[in-house]
Here is the input.
Amino acid sequence: MRLDKYISNATDISRSEVKRIIKTGAVEIDDQVTTNPATKVTSEQKVSLDGSVISACKHRYFMLNKPAGVVSVSKDKHHPTALSLVYEHRSDELQIAGRLDIDTTGLLLITDDGKWNHRLTSPRSKCTKVYTVTLGNPIEDNYPEKLSLGVQLDGEKHRCMPATMTKIDSHCLTLAIGEGKYHQVKRMFVALGNHVVKLHRFRVGGITLDEDLAEGDYRALSEAEVACIG
Ligand code: URA
Here is the structure.
């Protein structure tokens, strides 16, 4: 990466200001003063500004407690977007890792790390997602077995992967699924002759929604949370 871009990304100083600073001789690469903003720098090299080492441009990872009414796309004319709730610099580089429907609440992961996003969301990842589901009609005794055998969704060639449920009360359960087809949970319960009235995601892989996050709030993931994907 170019030196000026590297420093701008890592510090949030504008690119033009960084160019000016570099020309004053305040920047060193591996202890050698460098005055050319176009010099290429790699992540193995040590870059310092006024004697302080600048850490390599790190990726960013967040969990958001998504409220209902918010869409999981980057731009929308009619509804607030999940990204508009994340007040971070260079927010245009952030992507949503695994969408939720507009009326679904809960754990939404956001990152600028495309590879991590892909590991989480690619159809091959089989990363488990866990939801609290409230149904319009009572849970039937045969649901656990039907879900464990793989529900056949309307319009899909293959059955769903086996899913596991735990009953909470007559209309409410937790459901763990290992894939993410379009409107999957809602369609699974339509296939069972029921319908979802409320859906909340609280776990993705080893990442659990922080109970201290109010709806609409977000926080950075810990290193352990980031590492558990992939
Ligand atoms: N399944 C759904 O039907 N909706 C979601 O938002 C997530 C999973």
Q: What stands out?
A: Residues 61-227 form a domain with the Pseudouridine synthase fold (CATH 3.30.2350.10). The pocket of uracil is lined by residues 100-101, 104, 183-186, 199 (CB under 6 Å). The longest strand covers residues 196-204. The radius of gyration is 23 Å.
